[in-house]
Each structure stands twice: as C-alpha cells, then as structure tokens.
Amino acid sequence: MNEIEKQVSPIKKALFYGMELVGFNPKNFDKHSLHIIINNIELNHKNISVGNFREAFELGANGKLDVNLNTYQNFNTMYVANVFGAYRRFKINKRKLDTFKLPEPENNKQWEMWEKKKHFEWLRDKVFLESSKKNGSSGQFPEILIASFKDIYDYMLSERMLNEKMGVELKDRIAEAERAEVLEQKNPKKAFGMSLNKKRNDSKIPPCFYKLEVVDWFKLNKNKLN
User: Does the pTM of the predicted model rise above 0.70?
Assistant: First the structure.
C-alpha cells in the first residue's frame, strides 16, 4: 500500500460503509471510480469529516435526509454530492430548531433556574411594562399581583440584580414584610392575591419579604426598564 492509499484509507472505509447502508454492491465498483469519488470529496467537500460522512449515510438510511438514497447500482460523485447536500440541509435545519428549543438541562437545578428566569421575564414584560402602558405612567403594578416571588427573587439573586440582605438589614426587612402581610390580610382583594402568592416556605422568612424585594427593585429601576 502506497502513501496516498494510506491517507485515503479512512475515506475508503467510510465509502464502503455507506455503500453497505444503501444496498450498493461493491463488486460493481472499480478502483478507478473509487479514486474519482475520493478525489472529488477531498477537493470539494473538505469540511466533511469521515465521521460526518458515516453520519450522513446513517441518517439517510434511516429516512432522516430529504434525498432518495436508491443508487440504482450507480454509486458515483453526483450521488455522493447529493447525500452531502442533504446532510448539510439537515444540519442547518437542526441548528435553526435548536435556537428555539428548550434548553436540555444538565441537572434539575439548571432547569429550575430556566423556569425562574422565564417567570421574571413574564413579570417584567407582560405585567410591569404592560401595566405601566395601560396606566399611562411607569413603575406601577396592578393592585392584585399574583406571582411566584420567591422564584423571581432567586433568579434575580443569581444574576446579581439583588443583593442578599444579612444581619440587621435582613431583620428589619423581615419585620417590614410581616407588617405588610398584616395590612394585606385586612384588605379582602389583596388578601386573596396574597393567598395565591404563598408557596410552601420552610424558612422563617415570610412570603411577603420576596414580594417587597422584587417590587422595590422594579420601582427603583423603572426608568431603565421603560
């Protein structure tokens, strides 16, 4: 085996693999035709690796490509080019779909944070900004505001939009939240909204704490958001 044959050996193997997948009999193939196809691949399809080559024929054999893989026992450069063309279209379409695809989470925490992000974006775009436009002024939420403030708070903390309160500052904020909950319970409308907002909370921090943190951030940053 000479040096050239050694260099093209992986491509040869991939070619014969592709032939087998599409039902082409290699006995109907001569060395001259093989070299023509290999030279054409090296000249015109340099970005197609041996792995891509094998994948293209595997996808085609499983009906994933928009091309007819029936060779009619005529495996030539045009046939290979058609398979490569269909493979490229498949990859382009897959990238487009992946752009709009929900993220594949590596773990549950990643998925949960993605959901929290979407909840924050909903509150910002569909509630805060939309309500501001309807009221003709910025920095206003509707009177009854139903949202998972703990989730939104967690996301904002992860993005460093909020700073976690500690010590005396945290204690004062909790006291403020407790007073706010008492006032909301006296208001029938707000009490209804507050009951829907509440989630299971194992800590001593009242649910209204997260609402105050989130709502105050929106009020402080209303000019940047509008």
Answer: no
